[in-house]
Write a sequence for this structure.
Protein backbone atom coordinates (compact mmCIF):
# COMPACT_ATOMS: atom_id res chain seq x y z
CA UNK A 1 0.00 0.00 0.00
CA UNK A 2 1.55 3.26 -1.18
CA UNK A 3 -0.50 5.42 1.18
CA UNK A 4 -2.04 7.34 -1.73
CA UNK A 5 -5.80 6.79 -1.98
CA UNK A 6 -7.80 7.26 -5.14
CA UNK A 7 -11.54 6.99 -5.52
CA UNK A 8 -13.42 5.62 -7.26
CA UNK A 9 -11.45 2.63 -8.55
CA UNK A 10 -13.70 2.18 -11.57
CA UNK A 11 -16.02 4.58 -13.34
CA UNK A 12 -18.22 4.02 -16.37
CA UNK A 13 -19.97 7.01 -17.85
CA UNK A 14 -21.45 8.23 -21.11
CA UNK A 15 -20.02 10.64 -23.62
CA UNK A 16 -20.71 14.27 -22.79
CA UNK A 17 -20.85 13.67 -19.07
CA UNK A 18 -18.68 15.13 -16.31
CA UNK A 19 -16.85 13.17 -13.61
CA UNK A 20 -14.68 13.96 -10.61
CA UNK A 21 -11.75 11.81 -9.53
CA UNK A 22 -10.46 12.16 -6.01
CA UNK A 23 -6.99 11.70 -4.53
CA UNK A 24 -5.76 11.73 -0.95
CA UNK A 25 -1.97 12.01 -0.77
CA UNK A 26 0.25 10.24 1.73
CA UNK A 27 0.20 11.80 5.16
CA UNK A 28 2.50 14.82 5.18
CA UNK A 29 3.01 14.98 1.41
CA UNK A 30 2.41 18.44 -0.03
CA UNK A 31 2.71 17.63 -3.73
CA UNK A 32 0.05 15.94 -5.84
CA UNK A 33 0.51 14.93 -9.47
CA UNK A 34 -2.06 13.63 -11.93
CA UNK A 35 -1.18 11.29 -14.79
CA UNK A 36 -3.19 9.70 -17.57
CA UNK A 37 -2.34 6.27 -18.91
CA UNK A 38 -3.98 5.29 -22.17
CA UNK A 39 -3.09 2.32 -24.34
CA UNK A 40 -1.42 4.29 -27.10
CA UNK A 41 0.07 7.20 -25.12
CA UNK A 42 1.75 5.63 -22.12
CA UNK A 43 1.90 7.57 -18.85
CA UNK A 44 1.34 11.25 -19.54
CA UNK A 45 1.72 14.01 -16.96
CA UNK A 46 -1.35 16.21 -16.60
CA UNK A 47 -0.86 18.63 -13.71
CA UNK A 48 1.05 19.22 -10.45
CA UNK A 49 -0.14 20.96 -7.30
CA UNK A 50 2.00 21.88 -4.33
CA UNK A 51 0.39 22.95 -1.07
CA UNK A 52 -2.72 24.16 -2.84
CA UNK A 53 -1.05 25.96 -5.72
CA UNK A 54 -0.71 24.84 -9.31
CA UNK A 55 2.97 24.30 -10.09
CA UNK A 56 3.14 22.76 -13.53
CA UNK A 57 0.88 21.76 -16.37
CA UNK A 58 1.44 19.04 -18.89
CA UNK A 59 -0.74 17.83 -21.70
CA UNK A 60 -3.98 18.58 -19.92
CA UNK A 61 -7.01 19.30 -22.07
CA UNK A 62 -9.05 22.44 -21.50
CA UNK A 63 -12.02 20.18 -20.66
CA UNK A 64 -10.02 18.91 -17.68
CA UNK A 65 -9.33 20.86 -14.50
CA UNK A 66 -7.94 20.12 -11.08
CA UNK A 67 -7.55 21.64 -7.67
CA UNK A 68 -5.89 20.89 -4.36
CA UNK A 69 -7.82 21.71 -1.22
CA UNK A 70 -6.55 23.02 2.15
CA UNK A 71 -6.54 19.49 3.56
CA UNK A 72 -4.23 18.61 0.60
CA UNK A 73 -6.57 16.20 -1.13
CA UNK A 74 -6.98 16.83 -4.83
CA UNK A 75 -9.73 16.42 -7.38
CA UNK A 76 -9.47 16.03 -11.13
CA UNK A 77 -12.56 17.13 -13.03
CA UNK A 78 -13.16 15.78 -16.51
CA UNK A 79 -16.00 17.30 -18.51
CA UNK A 80 -17.64 16.84 -21.92
CA UNK A 81 -16.20 13.36 -21.91
CA UNK A 82 -15.24 11.68 -25.17
CA UNK A 83 -14.54 8.04 -25.96
CA UNK A 84 -10.85 8.88 -26.18
CA UNK A 85 -10.79 9.96 -22.54
CA UNK A 86 -11.11 6.34 -21.49
CA UNK A 87 -7.92 5.63 -19.58
CA UNK A 88 -6.36 4.86 -16.25
CA UNK A 89 -5.90 8.04 -14.22
CA UNK A 90 -3.23 8.04 -11.56
CA UNK A 91 -2.53 10.38 -8.73
CA UNK A 92 0.92 10.51 -7.13
CA UNK A 93 2.24 12.37 -4.13
CA UNK A 94 5.64 13.39 -2.86
CA UNK A 95 6.86 15.17 0.22
CA UNK A 96 8.08 18.42 -1.24
CA UNK A 97 7.94 20.20 -4.58
CA UNK A 98 9.41 17.18 -6.24
CA UNK A 99 13.12 17.86 -6.10
CA UNK A 100 15.04 14.86 -4.82
CA UNK A 101 11.95 13.22 -3.36
CA UNK A 102 10.36 9.90 -4.19
CA UNK A 103 6.87 9.88 -5.68
CA UNK A 104 4.26 7.30 -4.73
CA UNK A 105 1.28 6.39 -6.86
CA UNK A 106 -2.27 5.51 -5.98
CA UNK A 107 -4.06 2.48 -7.41
CA UNK A 108 -5.61 4.57 -10.17
CA UNK A 109 -9.13 5.21 -11.38
CA UNK A 110 -10.10 3.28 -14.49
CA UNK A 111 -12.44 5.49 -16.51
CA UNK A 112 -14.51 4.00 -19.29
CA UNK A 113 -16.49 6.36 -21.49
CA UNK A 114 -19.23 4.65 -23.51
CA UNK B 1 11.81 17.87 -23.22
CA UNK B 2 13.76 15.04 -21.73
CA UNK B 3 13.70 11.73 -23.61
CA UNK B 4 13.50 8.43 -21.75
CA UNK B 5 14.14 5.25 -23.69
CA UNK B 6 13.69 1.78 -22.28
CA UNK B 7 14.90 -1.46 -23.74
CA UNK B 8 13.95 -4.06 -24.61
CA UNK B 9 10.29 -3.21 -25.21
CA UNK B 10 9.26 -6.81 -24.65
CA UNK B 11 10.90 -9.71 -22.88
CA UNK B 12 9.84 -13.31 -22.35
CA UNK B 13 11.68 -15.33 -19.74
CA UNK B 14 11.55 -18.85 -18.42
CA UNK B 15 10.98 -18.97 -14.69
CA UNK B 16 14.31 -18.88 -12.89
CA UNK B 17 16.13 -16.87 -15.57
CA UNK B 18 17.88 -13.55 -14.99
CA UNK B 19 17.34 -10.34 -16.95
CA UNK B 20 18.60 -6.80 -17.32
CA UNK B 21 16.36 -3.89 -18.27
CA UNK B 22 17.86 -0.63 -19.44
CA UNK B 23 16.78 3.00 -19.21
CA UNK B 24 18.58 5.74 -21.13
CA UNK B 25 17.79 9.40 -20.57
CA UNK B 26 18.80 12.44 -22.53
CA UNK B 27 19.52 15.04 -19.85
CA UNK B 28 20.85 15.49 -16.33
CA UNK B 29 18.34 14.24 -13.74
CA UNK B 30 17.90 14.55 -9.97
CA UNK B 31 15.38 11.79 -9.58
CA UNK B 32 15.10 8.37 -11.16
CA UNK B 33 12.57 5.77 -10.14
CA UNK B 34 11.77 2.25 -11.30
CA UNK B 35 8.19 1.01 -11.10
CA UNK B 36 6.48 -2.30 -11.71
CA UNK B 37 2.97 -2.15 -13.11
CA UNK B 38 1.27 -5.42 -12.28
CA UNK B 39 -1.46 -7.02 -14.38
CA UNK B 40 -4.08 -5.24 -12.26
CA UNK B 41 -2.64 -1.86 -13.22
CA UNK B 42 -1.03 -0.93 -9.92
CA UNK B 43 2.21 1.04 -10.10
CA UNK B 44 4.54 -0.30 -7.45
CA UNK B 45 7.68 1.54 -6.40
CA UNK B 46 10.77 -0.59 -6.87
CA UNK B 47 13.66 1.83 -6.48
CA UNK B 48 14.33 5.51 -5.99
CA UNK B 49 17.85 5.67 -7.42
CA UNK B 50 19.13 8.96 -8.87
CA UNK B 51 22.63 7.50 -8.61
CA UNK B 52 24.49 4.48 -7.28
CA UNK B 53 23.38 0.92 -6.68
CA UNK B 54 20.61 -0.54 -4.56
CA UNK B 55 19.37 -4.04 -3.92
CA UNK B 56 16.05 -5.36 -2.68
CA UNK B 57 15.80 -9.13 -2.63
CA UNK B 58 16.04 -10.53 -6.15
CA UNK B 59 15.97 -7.05 -7.66
CA UNK B 60 18.78 -4.59 -7.90
CA UNK B 61 19.33 -1.34 -9.77
CA UNK B 62 22.27 0.78 -10.81
CA UNK B 63 22.19 4.34 -12.09
CA UNK B 64 25.22 5.95 -13.71
CA UNK B 65 24.04 9.54 -13.80
CA UNK B 66 27.11 10.87 -15.59
CA UNK B 67 26.48 8.48 -18.47
CA UNK B 68 22.70 8.93 -18.33
CA UNK B 69 21.51 5.39 -17.91
CA UNK B 70 20.06 3.07 -15.34
CA UNK B 71 19.82 -0.71 -15.22
CA UNK B 72 17.32 -2.91 -13.42
CA UNK B 73 18.40 -6.47 -12.72
CA UNK B 74 15.92 -9.24 -12.01
CA UNK B 75 17.39 -12.52 -10.83
CA UNK B 76 15.71 -15.91 -10.53
CA UNK B 77 12.57 -14.54 -12.12
CA UNK B 78 9.14 -15.71 -10.97
CA UNK B 79 5.77 -15.61 -12.71
CA UNK B 80 4.73 -12.88 -10.30
CA UNK B 81 7.43 -10.65 -11.82
CA UNK B 82 5.35 -10.40 -14.99
CA UNK B 83 4.06 -6.97 -15.91
CA UNK B 84 5.46 -3.73 -17.24
CA UNK B 85 8.56 -2.11 -15.79
CA UNK B 86 8.78 1.66 -16.07
CA UNK B 87 11.67 3.99 -15.59
CA UNK B 88 10.78 7.61 -14.74
CA UNK B 89 13.08 10.58 -14.39
CA UNK B 90 12.90 14.20 -13.31
CA UNK B 91 15.09 16.93 -14.82
CA UNK B 92 17.82 18.43 -12.71
CA UNK B 93 16.39 21.94 -13.05
CA UNK B 94 13.16 23.77 -12.59
CA UNK B 95 9.89 22.41 -11.36
CA UNK B 96 9.38 19.45 -13.64
CA UNK B 97 7.36 16.28 -13.17
CA UNK B 98 8.45 12.68 -13.50
CA UNK B 99 8.71 11.72 -17.16
CA UNK B 100 8.10 8.07 -17.94
CA UNK B 101 9.63 5.79 -20.51
CA UNK B 102 7.37 3.52 -22.53
CA UNK B 103 8.23 0.55 -20.38
CA UNK B 104 9.48 -3.00 -20.78
CA UNK B 105 6.76 -5.65 -20.85
CA UNK B 106 8.03 -8.76 -19.08
CA UNK B 107 6.36 -12.13 -19.29
CA UNK B 108 7.72 -14.90 -17.09
CA UNK B 109 6.50 -18.35 -18.04
CA UNK B 110 6.57 -21.44 -15.84
Amino acid sequence: DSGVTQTPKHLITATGQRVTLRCSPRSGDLSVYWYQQSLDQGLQFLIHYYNGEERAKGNILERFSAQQFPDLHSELNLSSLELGDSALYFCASSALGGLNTEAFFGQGTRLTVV
Amino acid sequence: GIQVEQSPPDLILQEGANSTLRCNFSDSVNNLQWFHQNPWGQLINLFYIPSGTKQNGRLSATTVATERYSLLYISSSQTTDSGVYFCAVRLNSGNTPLVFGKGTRLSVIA
